[in-house]
Amino acid sequence: MARLGHRASGPTRSRRPLVYGLGAVVVLVVVAGALLARQASTAKTALEDAASQAKILQNHISQGDVSAARSSLEDLQSSTGKAHTNTDGLVWSLLTKMPFVGDSVSAVRTVSSTLDDISRRGLPPVVEASASLDGDLFKPRNGAFDLAAFSQLGPTISTAAEVLTTNQRKIASIQSDELVGPLRAPVKDLKEKVDDAQFAASSAARAMRLAPEMLGARGTRRYLLVFQNNAEVRSTGGLPGAFAVVKAKNGKLSITQQGSASDIPQYEDPFVKLTKSEAAVYGQLMAKDFRDTNFTPDFPRTAKIMRSMVVDKLGVKVDGVLSLDPVALSHLLKGTGPIKAAADTELTADNAVDLLLNDVYARFTNPVDQDAFFADSARRIFEGVTSGKGDARETLSQLVTAAGEHRVLLWSARTKEQREIAPTTISGAFPGKGTTRPHVGMYLNDSTASKMQYYLDTKTTARSIRCTDDGRQTIELTTTFTSTAPADASLLPKYITGVGGNGPRGSMVLDTRFFAPAGGEFISFTQNGKFRPNNGVTFHGRPVNFAAITLKPGATVKIVATMRTAKGQRADAELSSTPGAHSSDNEIFVRSSC
Question: What share of the chain is helix, strand, coil (3-state, %, to 5)?
Fold first, then answer.
């Protein structure tokens, strides 16, 4: 019995360690779960605090209040550090491997660590430089910009840009679609904010690097300043009717020569050799007539042709080309304030576009006088900006707005400088082969030698409507063209209506070009609901469809171009179009359907 008793007690003793072990595991799981829940709650609160503190810091930086910015940065660093600490460690690392929640846990850890890194390495240089990074930095003193200040701030801003770029890539790697519902919107919002911050910092760093050299720190520079007239539309904006030669020396800018397109007579034969696709899509005029050099939407190409013509006809060798239009000038007037122009005229932000693109033709019947008034107005606004008139901070802000609308374009003849400019919005470069982001575009050229596009209203939208398994998006690009010209437009001055060679006076005849992404294709192309065949032409490796449309006063034409992207182009698409006579957004991102 004793033996039996002994054998009977054996299993009981062997189960106790197992029960105790399981109990310990349960306790550990509960404790670990509670700890993780508390850490997650703490991290969530810390990130929410960080969002509010970042806004406060931004205000202090924009005001140039270094003391307050330092204090708010410390608060921000405390919050991001707390978020990072509470989402770090072995357990959190193991959770990233779990099904269903792993991607979300990984996203939270990435967000916490990147924000902490930005606050500790990226923002301190900006805070310390905030006293200098105000509008006064870009306000000329005694007619010259402070090039030494640009050079000194360059390394500081570059450091911030590098940190933001590194962390932007980490955040961009988060696949939002794989996250749990409550995380998707905040992560998307964070991506956009970091993208904006990185873009601003990189742009500022690039400007600081380029400005001293381009403004003549090491010798005199000369630039061709071109004014595009949107009333006679061209792909990059408008006909280049007036120009000036600007000298830059030791930060001081001055106009040394002014002229109009008539000073550069048309060539009988193409002055430069066009590529096969350029000739097929735009003909030879862009290589023969200064006024047509921007038939192409590729501004660097336009600038090179312009420069070569100016050297040949005027004997002036320039170091680059800068382009503005009247809408850009109206934006700048918001910063400078009203400016006195010729003929007892006051130019303001409200009247500049109407005056320069339309009223001038009724006021002056002689084209020579029209050109003179336009050139004089442009010169006075230019001098107002370069002399530091008005609010320099607002002027800079409006310049950024104009650049975002593709109304400020810059090309440098110096290879190293152009390499820096090329990826930016102000380069006006046409995206061709080799781009991973799908780009779609709509560009216009006038065919009536008129100034009727002052009355042109265009609305261009795009949407991605489906995505295949191999990452090909179907994008629908829609443009509505409307003439707002008066019913009796034929009675307008002939310089506005044209002589009626290609269409009735008072109407518009437009050459439209629609571009599909590189490696993509057109599925359909309709005009007012009627199918049009594909042209079967490519430009810079991109399919292009074009159609000539005629708009009578009050008429509307609608073109819908449906296209498919190349394989693997899953990213948000980018939409660009010709900037018209009215302020509007450009380089718009179209949400991907992938």
Answer: 50, 20, 30
